[in-house]
Every structure is written in structure tokens, then in C-alpha cells.
Design goal:
single chain; mainly beta; 3-stranded antiparallel β-sheet; 11 strands
């Protein structure tokens, strides 16, 4: 995945009226002029931001028993993928274009106070890249095996009663701000 490398969000002190923006964010990001020509364009300033293919997938199964009780767990995870999370594009882009006029007097998309180029959220792909690594408890089963003598009284050779649950717990990467990354 390719896009502009971001180096931070434009500070909220440059917003005309912070009360009109969700979370008081400016919806604008500073981007890196990769070739130093003073212009931001995809042909010369895009960089590789990441890959949506994980470095590896992994899983762990465990089954334990004690007397007539048993339980099993299945964990699964993914490590090293990045996703282009579009959620911030929706809630930040809706409130863009609210910077003070003094922030960019020349209207050249370069901040006057620090000479850094900036882009709106929807154009600053680097700001939307997030680590999609996760760990999930996919399955948990708790069972009880009925004594064969008791099961025989009702015409069964054996019987087991159990409860099972799936997708009980997810732990996403610390900077991931959306729903289950596996769904992306």
C-alpha cells in the first residue's frame, strides 16, 4: 500500500472553531516532501506504507481434563499486517477545511509557521495506516463426561454434556481504532 508519509496532525490551535470538530482535531496532517521539491504529488512523494499481508498467522490449541471434566481452548492470531483504516476518513474528513486563514496565507498547502506541507485526512494515507495484528480466543469448550454406569441406565454406552462458545475475546494492536481487523 502506497501513500503520503505523515509526521503528525496539524495542531488544534490552528482550527478556526474547535467546538465544530469531533475530538477537536484539525482533520489535516503534515506530510513528508520525499524529494524536497516543495510540492506534494503522488508521483514523487508516495512511499510504501505497509502490506496487508501478515508476516505470519498462528494458532494454539489446548485440551485439558480432570476427572470427568474437560475443557479446550483455541487461540488464533495474525502478526505484521497493516490496514488502511477508512473509519477516520469518514469522521475526520467531514469536518475538514476549518483551519485559520493565518495557517496557510498563500493557500499553497504548506503551513506558514513551520513550512511543512499538509494534506486533508482523505489524502494523508499514512495517517490511516494501522497495525492489524491481533490475538483471538476462537473457541472455549467445557464438558462433563457422565459416568458410563449412569449412562448405561438410559441405554447409552457413554454421554457427555458440554457448553461451547466462539469468538469470546479479541485483542487488537494498540493503535488499531476500528472493528475486528480480520473483517477488513
Amino acid at each position: 500500500m502506497w501513500g503520503y508519509q505523515t509526521i503528525g496532525q496539524v495542531e488544534s490551535k490552528y482550527i478556526k472553531d474547535p467546538s465544530q470538530n469531533i475530538g477537536f482535531s484539525s482533520s489535516e496532517y503534515y506530510v513528508v516532501d520525499q524529494n524536497g521539491d516543495g510540492k506534494i504529488d503522488p508521483e514523487h512523494d508516495y512511499v510504501k506504507l505497509g502490506s496487508n499481508t501478515p508476516d505470519f498467522y498462528w494458532g494454539l490449541n489446548s485440551k485439558m481434563s480432570f476427572k470427568d471434566f474437560d475443557f479446550s481452548l483455541q487461540f488464533q492470531g495474525s502478526q505484521g499486517a497493516e490496514v488502511y483504516n477508512i473509519d477516520p476518513i469518514y469522521w475526520q474528513s467531514e469536518f475538514g477545511g476549518r483551519l485559520k486563514a493565518s495557517f496557510d496565507v498563500d493557500n499553497d498547502r504548506i503551513a506558514d509557521h513551520n513550512k511543512l506541507p499538509f494534506q486533508e485526512t482523505r489524502n494523508a494515507a499514512g495517517a490511516m495506516m494501522q497495525d492489524a495484528s491481533y490475538i483471538a480466543l476462537r473457541n472455549f469448550t467445557l464438558g462433563y463426561s457422565i459416568n458410563p454406569k449412569t449412562a448405561g441406565k438410559i441405554g447409552l454406552a457413554s454421554a457427555r454434556v458440554y457448553v461451547a462458545a466462539t469468538n469470546l475475546w479479541y485483542k487488537m494492536a494498540s493503535n488499531y481504532t476500528s472493528f475486528n481487523p480480520r473483517r477488513r
